[in-house]
Structure formats: structure tokens, C-alpha cells
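Question: I have long wanted to understand how a fold can be written as C-alpha cells. Here is the record:
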Amino acid sequence: MTAHIPDVRNNSVGGKDERLAARAILKDLVLTLRRIDIDVSAGRIDQAMAEYRNFALLVNFDVPVALKKAEPWSLFNSNVHQSHYAALGRLLPAPGQQPQ
């Protein structure tokens, strides 16, 4: 999902703070899943359950809010999506063509 939210170094779209927050919360979501996996593998079920509660809060509250705030500047927005891929099309040559 982070691939659909332009990195903060991308200056072609606005919403830098919103994009940064959305990318960070998605990365936190992945790290939380990894901690759950590690805790379960080590037999630390209580810790895994605590991490799962964090995961549930992230998934049900924080992630949707962050994604909604970043949506106007993300590839989830159809206008941004079309503009992004049109720009890529201008930069990348079609198969068999020389770069411009």
C-alpha cells in the first residue's frame, strides 16, 4: 500500500505531512504483524495478544484515518494515478523505441 502513496521526496504532489503520516502508519502496521509473529513463535502468547490489540486499533482506526487524509495526494486518487502513469509513460520509452 505504501507504493500507492508517493514518498515525501516526491515534490510533484502536495500533502507532504499527510503522505508521511500515512506511510509511517502503514509501516507500523507491518512491524506490528512482525512482532506478533515473533512473539507467537517464541511462545509469548500474552505479548502476541497485546500486539494484536495494537494491530486491531491500527487497522480499524488509525490506518483508515491516515489513508483518507493522504488520499488526495496518493495513487488511490484516480486523477493522481492517471497523471502519475502518464508522466511515467513520457519518461519511459515504449518497447522498441529509443529514449527521448
